[in-house]
Write a structure and sequence with these properties.
2 domains; Immunoglobulin-like; elongated; 244 residues; 32% helix; four-stranded antiparallel sheet; alpha+beta
């Protein structure tokens, strides 16, 4: 005696005759699909609320990417404090990152909990500290050469954060080299990104194909972009250059 359609015996027959996935889709999906619009609406409301909360925190000192929750904190740099020595710059930025980053991330986390920002609770804020001018570091390849000591010197090397996401941060850099000699010269080398202790985190080539030549008594400008993982804390940028 066969059971009526929809009875347990009929369902068991379906399970034997059809793949399990197909059976689950036919049985489970119809009653569940009516909840999908509500799920989409809830997700949209959570994200819109997150946009409002993160926008309310953005000001002249904060810049927050609401998709990645990477917050850029602008603070006084070494130059504003009158620090120009490379070792002093490294110590200043190391201390700033050691103290300011945990405090800022904790503050943002508390703010997210206070305003029930579910998106920020699922993807916690990460903080990157940059100089208030927008530059992360200015330094040179060791002591800058004095006129007469050699016929060229590094004028400056600067870097700043130009993009970021949940995986990496993009550092744009600009290097200026002065050719003090009476002849054209070719320079190449590396722009090195270091942590607070002076260890290399990443580097980027400068004039690797030696296609750029600097005229006599002139400045040469080199630029580039280097993506660095967010797990690495860049404290300073150093140029290591050779003349050919």
């Amino acid at each position: 005696m066969s059971g009526a359609p929809g009875t347990p015996s009929d369902l068991g027959h379906c399970q034997k005759d059809k793949p399990a996935l197909h059976f689950l889709v036919r049985v489970a999906y119809p009653p569940m699909k009516k909840f999908f619009p509500f799920i989409v609406i809830i997700i949209a409301l959570v994200f819109v609320w997150h946009l409002l909360v993160s926008a309310s925190m953005s000001n002249e000192n904060w810049s927050i990417n609401p998709l990645t929750d990477v917050a850029t904190l602008k603070m006084p740099g070494p130059a504003e404090s009158g620090i120009t020595d490379p070792q002093g710059i490294a110590a200043f930025e190391g201390a700033r990152a050691l103290v300011a980053v945990p405090i800022a991330e904790n503050k943002l986390g508390v703010y997210a909990r206070e305003y029930v920002d579910l998106y920020a609770l699922l993807i916690p804020y990460r903080v990157t500290v940059v100089d208030r001018t927008g530059q992360s570091t200015i330094s040179s390849t060791g002591p800058t050469a004095r006129p007469g000591a050699q016929d060229w010197h590094v004028v400056s090397v600067e870097s700043r954060i130009t993009e970021s996401n949940e995986v990496y941060t993009g550092y744009s850099w600009k290097l200026i080299i002065r050719n003090d000699s009476a002849d054209p010269a070719i320079f190449d080398g590396w722009v090195e990104f270091q942590d607070a202790d002076g260890f290399k985190l990443a580097d980027d080539a400068v004039n690797l194909d030696r296609s750029i030549q600097i005229a006599p008594a002139s400045d040469g400008v080199f630029t580039g972009l280097r993506d660095i993982e967010n797990t690495k804390r860049v404290a300073r940028t150093v140029a290591k250059i050779v003349k050919h």
